Amino acid sequence: MANKQNYYELYRKSTIGEALTDTLEELLINQYISNSLYQKILTQFDKTINEALSNTVKAKTTFKGNLHTYRFCDNVWTFILDNAQFKTEANEIVRVDRVKIVACDANVQDPPPSK
Amino acid sequence: MSVDSVYKYIVFDVIRNIKSNIKNDSDTENVDESIIDEIQTMWLDRLTQQGAISQNDPDETTATQTQPQQSALSTVEHENVRNTLNSLIQLNNKSQTTTTTTTSSTFGNPQQYLPPQKEASNGTSPTINSSNGNNNSNNNNNSNNNNLPSSLRSIMNPMPQNDGTLDESDNDDENNSNESNNKDNIDKLIIDGFTKKFNFNESEVIPQNDGLNDDDDLDDEEIGGGVNKVEEDSLGSDLDDDEDDDPDPIIEHFVLCQYEKVSRIKNKRKCNFKDGIMHLNGKDTLFNKANGEMVWM
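ok -> structure tokens follow
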């Protein structure tokens, strides 16, 4: 309540986010938790994961690939790369035939409430 | 920090914050902390199953190395969760103010049952108090699971069910093999009967299955179908290709992140990303910064 800052809900689609939303949805459907608690936990998750990613993660990555699709809509970039290659600092290389990248605007951490 | 430890930090941070916040909000002040604990357990269980994190307890890790022990362990865990949730329902049905004092003792119980769970993993029957007297521990598991309401079972068993319905399906298989033989025979008899009775010419039988396409079929035949059929097929396959080209629905590898800058020079785009979660080849990786070059072909 105290912190009214908005955090991106983007990461709810990640592995850890899906694990939480699946758990909460099952509990919600079976009425073990209320809708307000459901929302509260997801909001807390948004806050925690946004802060954790920016504060505790130090790793750097480079990547390249062939652009299959790009889209810029509502300030969200979506790229689909073919034959993408990701390289970590330890020169560990991961190749995938197709990867989807969804990126929100890092410079607007407070999205305007108008929309 | 490894992905594993970041994920665990996130789980514990969310749970800790929720626990400290729920009492301040009138909407959630009656929420019992035990349900938050259950959320944490289920959340971690799911992450462990997906291989996103390793298990906390070394005892548990060794216990899950063999299949039967794992199923026994999970059954007991599920029973504990079920007990907690059941008592939650009962408490919710009573008046909430009077029960808040008693909940702490009641809800402590499932955790206190954990020692029997360890004994269970030694290969003995998982339900020590079970009066079924079955020698086979699988049978015990089945009876326990079958007692659960279906809605609860879906909660308690996020794992693929490897014990419960096996017995039934075995029986079904035996029955099915007989039935399917019978069905095949019956089908043959029916088809034979029809063909004998109506004695169709091939030309009549093949084109007319639905009636409405009568004209089309005739046209195809008149214009010497070969070319037209190819065109029809290619039309259909064009549509299929379009669906294949739309890559949104099924991409197993993804990156969720925030962009600082996306620029383009001719057909090349350069991106500066930050705070990303990558899921590549089934493995999660996190990054603080990522720079990339993408070529538009």
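The first strand of chain B starts at residue 254 and ends at 265.
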